[in-house]
Amino acid sequence: MQEAMINRAKQLLADGTVDRVIGWKRGEFAYDITPAVFRSAEELDADFVFDDFTSANVSKYLVKESKKEGKILAFLKPCDTYSFNQLTKEHRVVRENVYIIGIPGGPKLDAEKIKAKGITGILGVKNENYTLKIETVYGEETMPYYEAVLDKCASCKSKKHVVFDELIGDDGEVLESNRFEMVEKLENMTAQERFDFWRDQLSKCIRCNACRNVCPACTCEKCVFDNPNSGVENKAPADSFEENMFHIIRAFHVAGRCTDCGECSRVCPQNIPLHLLNRKFIKDINSLYGEYQAGEDTTSRAPLNDYKQDDCEASIVHERGVE
Ligand code: SF4
Ligand code: SF4
Ligand code: SF4
């Protein structure tokens, strides 16, 4: 796949369709694959990487990149195409300045899950009949492949590309996903148990802002959390109330726009399952306003930006008997 992507990128650069390419290159470690812009065949040959650890969604980078002169080639996995569509709908990207090649999705791997098995010094991985063979500086290690899969890939909602100019490989289908299972478990807890669960998780937050910075729905040029008068700009939260509010406010801001791309949880250095908060919103929107998938198209009106006479009233939370 990597070779096919590099070859096609070189062709599109050579024939002038695009003048640069956004993809990924290796960071400090083998599993540390990071978005990068390439401007020549030589740069692609030297640094372009697409492997089991290439999970970063490049859609958000296109907010800035698509406003520059010329056209950029972007390789988008199925989940990334939902983010791009949502950004198009919100007029945050300039669609005609991006040439999109849809590429197959994961499953992608989570280096943290490999390290949690005590495996360090990772140099590379290979999936052999669902056994993951891990080459390390200390020799070869193995573990079951599916135990190393990223959470967002384990509950993938769709292998279908919702926007592309061309595809490498076949397109997939929208999947029957188990993504609301954990949300249902939380719903079945008592209010106190649920509060304790979230306090336990959110108290780990070090306010690094990685979740906000990576989120394709968080593209506000002036973010509310950068307001020095708000009291929420601290590096470390002042108290538990403020600690909760950062996440609750962000979840409300992206409600109805979050495509469930899973990037917020993926990048959190404290392993806080932020996607559960966002999925609760998605699940509630589905049940209160009808099934809706943000980013599925660029024209439909989002439930929270629309008004219908039979929309539920604000009192619905009380009527549903939510504790
Ligand atoms: S809130 Fe998380 S899952 Fe939702 S769009 Fe942002 S990064 Fe993706
Ligand atoms: S947290 Fe809210 S204000 Fe800040 S970038 Fe995200 S959506 Fe915008
Ligand atoms: S990425 Fe994790 S630690 Fe960083 S601000 Fe977000 S929740 Fe907190």
Automatic annotation (TrEMBL):
Ranges where the 4Fe-4S ferredoxin-type domain occurs: 195-216, 249-279
Source domain of life is: Bacteria
Identify the InterPro entries for this entry: 4Fe4S_Fe-S-bd, 4Fe4S_Fe_S_CS, Helical_ferredxn
Q: Which UniProt keywords apply?
A: Iron, Iron-sulfur, Metal-binding
Q: Does the keyword Iron apply?
A: yes
Determine if Metal-binding is one of this entry's keywords: yes
Gene Ontology molecular function: iron-sulfur cluster binding; metal ion binding
Matching PROSITE patterns, A to Z? 4FE4S_FER_1, 4FE4S_FER_2
The record's annotation in Gene3D superfamilies points to: Alpha-helical ferredoxin (1.10.1060.10)
* Pfam name, any one: Fer4_8
Task: Specify the protein name.
Answer: 4Fe-4S dicluster domain-containing protein
- What species was this sequence derived from? Ruminococcus flavefaciens
